[in-house]
Amino acid sequence: MLSNEVKDKLISIVTKDNFDDSKMERLVYSYDATPNFQSMPDAVVSPRNTEEVSEILKICNQYGVPIVPRGSGTNLCAGTCPTEGGVVLLFKHMNQILEIDEENLTITVQPGVITLDLINAIEEKGLFYPPDPSSMKISTIGGNINENSGGLRGLKYGVTRDYVIGLEAVLPNGDIIRTGGKLAKDVAGYDLTRLFVGSEGTLVVITEATLKLIPMPETRKTMLALYQDLSAAARSVSKIIANKIIPTTLEFLDQATLKVVEDYAQIGLPTDVQAVLLIEQDGPPEVVERDIEKIAEVCKLENAVSIQIAATEEEAMALRTARRAALSAVARLAPTTILEDATVPRSEIANMVKAINEITEKYQLTICTFGHAGDGNLHPTCATDARNHEEMERVEKAFAEIFEKAIELGGTITGEHGVGAMKAPYLEWKLKKEGIAAMMGIKQAFDPNNIMNPGKVFAKDSKKRVVITR
Amino acid sequence: MTTLLEQEKIQQQFKERMNEDELLNCMRCGFCLPTCPTYIESGYKESHSPRGRIAMMKAVVDGIVEPDEDFERSLELCLGCRACEPVCPSGVNYGHLLEEARDIINQNKKHSLPVRAVRKTVFEGLFPHQNRMRTMVGLLGFYQRSGIQTLARKTGYLGLLPDNLATMEKVLPKVPTMKEMKNRPEHLPALSEKVHKVAFFSGCLMDTMFMKTNDSTMKLLQLAGCEIVIPKQQTCCGALHGHSGEKDGAKELAKRNIAAFEDLGADFIITNAGGCGAFLVDYDHLLKDDPAWSERAVAFKAKIKDISEILVAVSFHKKVKLELPPQVITYQDSCHLRNVMKTASAPRTLLEAIEGVQFKEMKEADRCCGSAGIYNIVESEMSMVMLDYKMVQAKATHATTIVTANPGCLLQMQLGIEREGLSGKMRGVHIVDLLAEAVK
Predict the structure, then answer these.
(1) DSSP β-bridge partners for residue B357
(2) Is the ipTM above a cut-off of 0.90?
(3) Of A24, A92, A263, which is closest to B70 when you measure between CB atoms?
(4) Dist CA B28 CA B373 (whole Å)
(5) What CATH number was assigned to the domain covering residues A219-408?
(6) pTM of the complete model
(7) Phi-psi bin for A312: left (phi > 0), alpha (psi -120 to 50), beta?
(8) Contact B278, B337 (CB under 8 A)
(9) Is the pLDDT reported for residue A451 higher than 50?
(10) Chain centre distance of CA B343
(11) Could you list the residue range(s) of the whole structural domain that residue B414 is in?
(12) How far are the Cα atoms of A453, B140, B363, B423 from residue B420, in angstroms, in the given order?
C-alpha cells in the first residue's frame, strides 16, 4: 500500500483522474501475457507528459516505491508484472506521433503509440519500419523498445534495436536526458541508446523515441515449403542462408502448431505434413523472383514434398497473420501455454529442433514448436495445465534442459522475449557470475534505490525456477 | 448498491458456476484489445477490455477480489458485441462467460421495487406473449396515427425524455395496425421452382414493429424457390433475457421454439435479425445441461441460417434481376450476425449484385454501432459515443443508404441519421427491404 503522503503527492502531479488505486483497476494491471505470473500493483498512474514522469520518479525514488512502466501488457517474460507492487505507469496520454521526417527518414513518437499505427502512418508515405512483433496490432512502441522486440522480418532487417537512434528518457532521480538523434553517425560518448533498448524498464523510463526508417521494398513474395521430415526442414534453413540468400522471413512451424493454427485461422494450411517453412523475400521484382526460385530449389534438394507460392497479397497476408496467432492458438490444446524462445546460431537449428523433440519425448509433454528459424530463434510452446502440479514440474525440467542445450550449442536463453521475472533465474547460465556483476554495476549506477521494475532481469536466486501461482 | 451479503452470494456462485476451463483458456495475449469498442472508447482502460473482464471474473472465482461495484460496472458497460471472439486465437467463448456472469449477478441482486416491476413486466409479461407484443406495438400505432404524436411533439412533452429517447421516438417505424398484425400467414408456396422447404423464425419485434421487413423476407424466400412454413407456436428468441441476466426465462423460450420448429420437415430455419439468429444458434449451449433438450437443441441449431446466407446459397442474386436508381450504399455489420453467426460476406455479395448502386465499404463496418439490444437506452452515453464514431465513418463513404441486417442496428442507424440532421438525405434500411425494392 502507498502511504497517504505518497498518494497525495502523486495525485497532485497527475490529478485525480489519472491516479487509480481501486481494487479492480489494480487487478487488471496485475498481469501481462506471461502465464503463472500475477501480482497486484499499489496504484496505476497515467502521466500526461515527460515533466510529470520526472516528478513521479522523484517521488518514487524518494519513498522507495517500485515503478513498472507498461505498454499494452503483451510481453512474454513477466516484464510488466508488478511482482513487487508499486506504481504501474501507463502511457495512454503519451501516444502521439510527433513527427515524420522524410528528409532524414525518421519518425519521432511518444511511447504509447501502437506499433501498427506507426507502421500504417509511415507506409502511407512509402516508408518502411521492419520490426513487426506478432502483437503489433496492440503492442506499443515503448513496450517494443523496452523489450527490444523482434518479429517475422528480423532475419533480413534486424530487430527494434536496429531502428532506435534517439531517445528521451527520465532517470530514477528525475533527470531528463536525450541520447542519440537523427544521426547516421554519433560516437559522442557511451551508446546509451543501445543500452536502454531492451533494458526492460529497469534503468529509465523512455518518454520519446526517434526511429530510423527505410524505403519500402518494391515487391515481396511469400511461399510455403512443406516437409515430411523435421530435420530436413531445419536443414533447409541453414542451407538457404549458406547459399547467400537472406530472405525477409524464414519461419518454421511443426505439425502440431499447423493444426492448432489452422483450427483458428481456417485458411487451408497443410496439416498432413510434419513441418512447414514460411518464407518471404522482398526487394526489386527481378531479385525477388530469382531468390524465390533459388530458395525453392534448395528446399526441393532438401526433400521438401511441395512448394506453394502465395498467388496474391491477401493470401500472403493470411499466412503471416496465421503465423502471428500461433502462440495463442496453442492455447486451444490446453488451459496453460508456456513458451520459451531459446536461440541458437542458425547453423545449429537442426540440432536444436532435434533436441527439443527428444526432450519433449523424455518428459512426455505436448510441445508445439514454431518460430523464427532463420534467426535461430525457436518458440517451443508447451500446452499444459497450471493446475496439474506434477506435469508443471516436468515442464520446468524440460525447459531447463532446452535452455541448457541452447547454451551448449552457442545460443542464448532468450532471443526476443526478454528476461523479465520469468527467465531471471536462468540469466546466470548465459552470462556467468561476472557478466551478471557487470550488469548489476550498470543497474546500480542508474538506479541505486532499485525502484525501476525491481525483480526483473536480476533474480534473487539463480537456477531455481520462480513460479508465482496466480 | 450491492450489499456485502449479496457480494458474498455472488462470489460463491461464481465459484460454483463459472466455467474455469474457459477462464483459464484466456492466455492474456491481448489480441482482443484492438477490437473492443469499450476498451478503445474508454481511453484504453484494461478494465473495460475482454482480457480485463475475464481477469476480473477469474479473480472473483479465485477469491482474490470481491465482486464490487467496479466489477459490476465493467460488465454492464460491455456491449456484448463479441468482436473479441473471432480474433481470439485461443477460441475463448467470451459471450458465454459474460452471460453466465451477468446471470449470477442479476439473480443474486435485489433490484429496487420499480426496477423489479419493469423487469417482470418486460421479461415475463411482454416478450414471451406475441398477442401482448401486438397490443403494445398497436398502442404505438395508435399514438402515431391518432394525432397524439403530433400533439406530443408540438407541446414539448417529449422534451421531458432524455435526449436520445426523444430522438428515438422520431425514428421508430410507422407500425402496422392491429388487424394487419393479427393476419399473419402460416404457410407460403415457392414462387419459382422449389429448391428448399424452409421454416421462418418471425421474431417478436420483427413480426410487429418491423412487420414489413418480415413481409419482404418472405417474398424474397418465395422468389428464391423456398416453400415457407411459419409455425404459430414460435415465440421470442430470448436474447433480451439471456443478455440481461434472465437465463431461466431464456431457457423456457428456447424450449418452446425448439418444439415449434422440430417436426416441420424444413431444411433450414431462416432468421432476418442477427441478434435473434445469434441467440438461436447458442441454444445448444443454453440447454447443454438439460438432458431432455440438449440433443434437440443441437439439431435445432444446425438448421439456423440468416436470410442473406440462404439467398446467396441458392444464387438468388444471379437468378433474379436486382436494380435500383443510382445511389451509393454502405453496410453496417450486425455484430451478432458477423461475430456469432459468422455471416459477413453474404450480405455484401447481395448488395454488390444490385445494378445501379455503388457499394462502398465503410471503415470499421465490423465495429459495433452502440445499439446492442437495449444498451443504447441503459448505457446511452457510451452508446452515443459509438454512434457518433460510426456516423463519421458512414458519412465518409458519401452513401445515401446505410444497410443493416438487424432491427436494433437499423433503429440506431436511423437515430444516427436524425442526430446528424441528415434525415431526408440519408436513410437506414434493412437489407431485405432494399432487396425487395430492387426486385420491383
Answers:
(1) B327
(2) yes
(3) A24
(4) 28
(5) 3.40.462.40
(6) 0.92
(7) beta
(8) yes
(9) yes
(10) 14
(11) 319-439
(12) 48, 25, 18, 8
